[in-house]
Design goal:
The protein has about 725 residues and is of the alpha/beta class. Helix content is about 30%, strand content about 25%. The strands form six sheets. Strands 13-14-15-16-17-18-19-20 form an eight-stranded parallel barrel, surrounded by five helices.
């Protein structure tokens, strides 16, 4: 009978680095090491160090990938350990814990069905209510799987069924699917009780107070934050989780790498993890700094030699764009609309910047006068993906010397915020675009490099990613965005989507993919939407403008760009070919004013998740992986609904306080056919609540039972803020 360990890593390289660090820490302390496997989405230099590599057939790039463990466990008896763990002593005695354990086993506590601390109650699990005799909680950092155990295939079927029907049940703390909640119910259904409490085996750092943590000496001592009598002196596994001990994690990772892999590997890979940490901290720290202070900090960091340079480092320079505010841009300001009156109208319309602007010095002088920025095209060699014919040819066509030559003749201007380096490239060019962006950032110290991506309705490869006759250059859009994040050193993802031509479901799917990638990688989300029309007989309405912008904000967008202000593509622009304002001008001016008004408070927060509420009787989620909730609850705001579809973005305060917000888009009428008024209702016990719309704070009613009631209308966007009561 073969025993061994396994971990999982998918997506970004930092997860592979963490998985390899876990492996090295295990082998460092193991007196008689067992085989250690990795389940992953690709092979690379990190997977080469594992004994066995199992490719995940359809990765979700989330906690849900752990649901594949019962099916893919590589050994007769397998212990899974999460990749964000490090080992502090020999784990050979851990196998004794699972002697006689059920086919799938966790480390946690078995609780009675009426427990208030379990992850579900008997009344919350539908058809399973009569099949369970206990509930349980546990630590998801470690699982045990007996591949030859009785009932494994039935257990796998139950896991898959619960996952597919997740939103038909109710779980404490976890609104969206997680491995812990799915496995907890499946274990209860099959009577798989925990083997032991996790506390002696896994130190889950967010729940403990560390006493001694030193991986070089194999020391891991801690006590429970709430139950001070629970104290461990000889811990086995440290599960870092999402917590504030980022630099301790980095130091421990560096120490184990230094002891097992040598100085060079320790410096390089610890620097990559460090930059990953810095990127996540950007919105809380660096965005509050002035460019001068950022330069000083960067110089100090460089002087310490702590971080090595890496092609995967993010570009974090904001240039002259104020990234602390919600910025609104447009595509194209043609020469016939560059008089002073036109540019004043542009600023009055609430436009902060223009993309595809030429290096027109008189116009740029007027931009400076009216506070408008430009992302200028034609400064460096351009690039457009087109239909995919030129995919993979960027390096040959535009060598880095061309960018250096362009910079040598460039004369700066205060209105130039960014340098346009390309539009809609194939993923085959992402590795070289990484070099281009880094080079442009270096050559143009006052500007950031701007690169825009395809939407999800661009064509994909029909065979392999090396095929060039396609637009994305990847088999899926998810893979396209993942490769962008891996290769391109930008702290934003910018893409365009024109829902009027493609539909709402595709729009939501695109928002989901990009917002998930932005959250996972610490990037800002920039979305281009339409103010003009493909059909000259159709004019985009004011409410359709709102729907596009507020849907993007519900997913965490930080920049909204409208296409097109003057002639660029399609018809019915804001300013026509004669330089005259069309009916779109007043519509756009009103909606932009709303966005800027609500953006002042919106930008105090950062998006953490997005949910769909009340979409059950619509087709707007068809062919997506999205699930509709009957009402929204998150532990602070509960029972939120309006009797109509709502897109609800959950947001956390950037300053680290306990303030919380929801950004809500009322999505019942996306094509403005029959707008209606609705009543939004929710509870927020013990919280002070304010609600802001585009025209200011909205009056609300709170009844004796604690229900808040707020009038809302189709396509409206509102920000609900909840803070602790004084």
């Amino acid at each position: 009978m073969r025993k061994g360990f396994v971990t999982i890593a998918t997506g970004y390289n930092r997860y592979y680095i963490m998985a390899r660090n876990l492996l090295l820490s295990y082998r460092h302390f193991a007196k008689d090491p067992l085989p250690f496997a990795i389940i992953c989405d690709r092979t690379n230099k990190y997977t080469e160090e594992f004994d066995d590599v199992i490719l995940l057939p359809d990765p979700a790039y989330s906690y849900i990938d752990k649901l594949s463990l019962p099916s893919l466990a590589p050994y007769d008896q397998t212990i899974f350990i999460d990749a964000d763990c490090l080992v502090y002593r020999d784990l050979s005695d851990m196998w004794k814990v699972f002697e006689g354990a059920p086919t799938f086993c966790v480390l946690g506590r078995e609780l009675p069905l009426d427990s208030e601390t379990g992850w579900f109650k008997k009344s919350d699990v539908g058809e399973f209510s009569d099949k369970i005799k206990f509930c349980l909680t546990f630590q998801g950092g470690a699982y045990y799987i007996d591949r030859n155990g009785a009932g494994l295939s039935d257990f796998i079927n139950t896991v898959n069924y619960i996952h597919e029907h997740y939103f038909e049940y109710r779980f404490r703390l976890f609104q969206n699917p997680t491995d812990e909640t799915v496995f907890s119910l499946a274990c209860a259904v099959h009577g798989y009780a925990p083997a032991d409490n996790y506390f002696p085996w896994i130190c889950y750092l967010p729940l403990v107070k560390p006493k001694r943590i030193n991986i070089k000496r194999g020391l891991l001592a801690y006590r429970h934050k709430k139950d001070k009598e629970l104290e461990i002196q000889d811990g086995h596994i440290l599960h870092w989780g999402h917590n504030k001990h980022r630099w301790l994690f980095l130091r421990q990772s560096f120490d184990i790498l230094l002891r097992t892999a040598g100085l060079k590997t320790a410096v390089i890979d610890s620097s990559r993890l460090a930059w990953s940490i810095i990127k996540k901290m950007t919105t809380r720290f660096f965005k509050k700094m002035t460019p001068k202070v950022i330069s000083v900090v960067a110089a100090l960091v460089a002087a310490t030699g702590l971080f090595a340079q890496s092609s995967s480092n993010y570009v974090t320079k904001a240039g002259r764009m104020d990234r602390c505010k919600l910025n609104i841009g447009v595509y194209h300001l043609r020469p016939y609309a560059r008089t002073e009156a036109h540019i004043k109208d542009l600023a009055d319309c609430g436009i902060d910047f223009v993309i595809c602007m030429e290096n027109d010095r008189p116009a740029l002088d007027l931009f400076s006068k009216y506070g408008v920025g430009a992302i200028v095209s034609g400064i460096v060699p351009g690039w457009w993906g087109g239909d995919g014919d030129n995919a993979g040819k960027l390096e040959e066509t535009n060598p880095l010397s061309k960018y250096e030559e362009a910079a040598a003749s460039f004369q700066d201007h205060p209105a130039i915020w960014g340098i346009d380096v390309g539009d809609e490239p194939s993923a085959l060019d992402f590795p070289y675009f990484g070099k281009v962006l880094a080079k442009v950032e270096d050559l143009f110290p006052n500007q950031f490099a701007f690169l825009n991506l395809y939407p999800n309705y661009a064509s994909v490869s029909q065979n392999t990613a090396v095929q060039t006759k396609n637009q994305l250059g990847t088999p899926t859009y998810e893979e396209h965005i993942r490769q962008y994040c891996e290769y391109v050193p930008a702290d934003y993802i910018s893409y365009d989507f024109y829902y009027k031509n493609v539909g709402v479901a595709k729009d939501y799917a695109n928002l989901r993919v990009v917002s998930d990638a932005c959250r996972a990688s610490g990037r800002g989300m920039w979305v281009t939407v339409q103010v003009n029309s493909y059909d000259p007989k159709v004019w985009i309405t004011e409410n359709e403008l709102r729907f596009q912008a507020y849907s993007a904000l519900a997913f965490g967008a930080e920049n909204i760009t409208w296409a097109c202000y003057t002639a660029g593509w399609w018809k019915n622009q804001v300013v026509d070919e004669n330089g005259q304002k069309t009916q779109q001008y007043d519509k756009l001016k009103k909606v932009n004013a709303e966005l800027h008004s609500i953006g002042k408070d919106y930008m105090k927060y950062i998006n953490r998740s997005t949910s769909f509420v009340g979409f059950e009787k619509t087709d707007m989620l068809e062919e997506t992986a999205e699930k509709s909730l009957k009402e929204y609850s998150d532990g602070v705001i509960s029972n939120l609904s309006a009797g109509c579809p709502l897109v609800v973005g959950e947001m956390a305060a950037k300053d680290g306080s306990d303030a919380k917000a929801l950004f809500i888009c009322v999505a019942d009428d996306p094509f403005d056919k029959a707008p209606k008024n609705h009543l939004l209702r929710f509870k927020a016990p013990g919280k002070e609540v304010t609600v802001r719309g585009g025209e200011g704070y909205i009056p609300m009613r709170r009844d004796a039972e604690g229900w808040y009631e707020i009038p809302v209308s189709s396509c409206q966007g509102i920000l609900v803020e909840a803070t602790s009561s004084r």
